[in-house]
Fold this sequence. Notes:
Helix content is 47%, strand content 12%. By secondary structure, it is an alpha/beta fold.
Amino acid sequence: MTITTCVFDAYGTLFDVAAAARVAASEPGNERLAQTWEGLARDWRLKQLEYSWLRAITGDHVDFWQVTQDGLDWAMEAAGLDDATLRARLLALYWELGAYPEVPAVLNALKQAGLNMAILSNGSPAMLQGAVDSAGIGALFDDVLSVESVGIFKPAAPVYDLVGQRFGCDRASVLFVSSNGWDAGSAAAYGFTTAWVNRAGAPMDRLPARPQHIVPDLSAIAQLALNKGATA
């Protein structure tokens, strides 16, 4: 089936989730963070995801901004950083995450080709709007879909249902793009054609389904979506 709809995860896929810690570490007065920022960024992201999964299982839903704050608090304690000013700065920077360098060109190519375009993210609507505005890519999407409309985080099926509800498309006609292996695999099991953006060169997650495509960044996504290689 030909791809008609291209859907992107947001954090780690379009937006660089390590940027907040990296930028803060470069600022005067944050010398301690400069020594540990990579570990903090890694722990922050891991706990942010772990807390979203646990809350999905237990039904204790909060929005992604709360999960993001909780993850940072854990990561800062693990790094021995007890600094309210630094915490506030890191959280402020999270609303201004930069897009990866290849993002604008890829999105423009897909948009010009006439595909339906959307973000599907765990992020709250306000967080996503902040990131999209900061990156200047809002005009390239037909919609920004947040899990807040269904009250559960990915990879729950009702989240992936939002795409079909919005665009009226068959599952196999959707190219779903995520930097999270668990997300790409779960979306493949759901029935989407999926591409895993494996920026870190990580092993494949051991899940019931695997993504159909694996790419090191987003540069090849337009070709996958528009060429015969992207058919399911």
